[in-house]
Specification:
The chain is α+β, with helices and mostly antiparallel strands. It contains five helices and seven strands, in the order H-E-E-H-E-H-E-H-E-E-H-E. The chain has helices at 2-55, 87-96, 118-124, 155-162, 210-214, and strands at 60-70, 75-85, 102-114, 126-143, 168-184, 193-208, 222-235. It has a seven-stranded mixed β-sheet with strand order 1-2-3-4-5-6-7. Helix 1 (2-55) packs across helix 4 (155-162). The longest helix is centred in the first third of the chain and has 54 residues, at 2-55. The N and C termini lie far apart (98 Å). The relative contact order is 0.10.
């Protein structure tokens, strides 16, 4: 009887110790998640800004209203992402003949990054995600005509610009939903333009690293691109 009481005491004590250890682990995990939830959004903001600004030789500016992260679901939500042309850098690059063939501006109300791998981002400087979804965005593009134009940046040269701070970007799928797309043939408003009121696109297997940059079968680091468009509006020079 005494032996059974002794075993029962040790059993209860073991349960109490196990519960205490579990509580401590949960407490430390909660603190870690809280700290990371403050750290990761700023890290992502810096990475996105670096890709946009440095990847375009400072032609574009980037602003993001809010980034929030849900660790349990591995989801990052982005609100009010705006990528605009820096007018000063635009004039400089135009005079130097360094403008790309097409410039663009993006205004996105909301988007999400799903399946973000946190540890590679922190320790290996690699961005690995399952999918990126952009909803309700406006994209305006403009064709640039220049004399004495220099050679445009290739995927290889773009990767060399990004590499000092990012070791690789890997995205399984990018979804663009309810996108309003407009295109202008030049800066001159008298030239022909067209727009799509509802455009959807899916990009698969994006790999931005030395292998992706050297793969000539990829278009903009992407293995496969599918585009669906509807509601075309076409303007002639007389209607502008």
């Amino acid at each position: 009887m005494h032996a059974m009481n002794t075993k029962s005491k040790y059993f209860k004590k073991g349960i109490r110790i196990g519960m205490m250890v579990a509580c401590i682990i949960f407490f430390l995990l909660s603190i870690g998640i809280f700290v990371l939830s403050r750290y990761i959004p700023n890290l992502l903001r810096n990475k996105i800004n670096h890709m946009v600004v440095n990847g375009s030789d400072s032609l574009y500016k980037c602003s993001i209203s809010k980034i929030s992260i849900n660790f349990w679901r591995g989801k990052v939500s982005i609100e009010d992402l705006n990528i605009t042309v820096d007018s000063v850098k635009y004039r400089e690059q135009k005079l130097d003949g360094r403008l790309p063939n097409i410039t663009f501006e993006l205004k996105m109300m909301e988007g999400s990054v799903n399946g973000l791998k946190v540890f590679p981002l922190i320790f290996s400087k690699k961005i690995i995600v399952e999918s990126i979804q952009l909803d309700s965005a406006n994209i305006s593009m403009c064709r640039q005509h220049k004399e004495g134009k220099k050679k445009n940046q290739s995927e290889n040269s773009l990767w060399k610009i990004l590499k000092p701070r990012i070791n690789g970007i890997y995205v399984n799928r990018v979804l663009l939903n309810k996108i309003k797309l407009s295109y202008r043939h030049s800066e001159d408003k008298k030239d022909i333009a067209f727009g799509y009121q509802d455009c959807s696109a899916e990009l698969r297997n994006i790999r931005i690293d030395s292998i992706g940059a050297g793969n000539t079968s990829r278009i903009l680091f992407t293995e496969d691109i599918a585009i669906k468009i509807a509601g075309m509006t076409y303007f002639t020079s007389d209607s502008l």
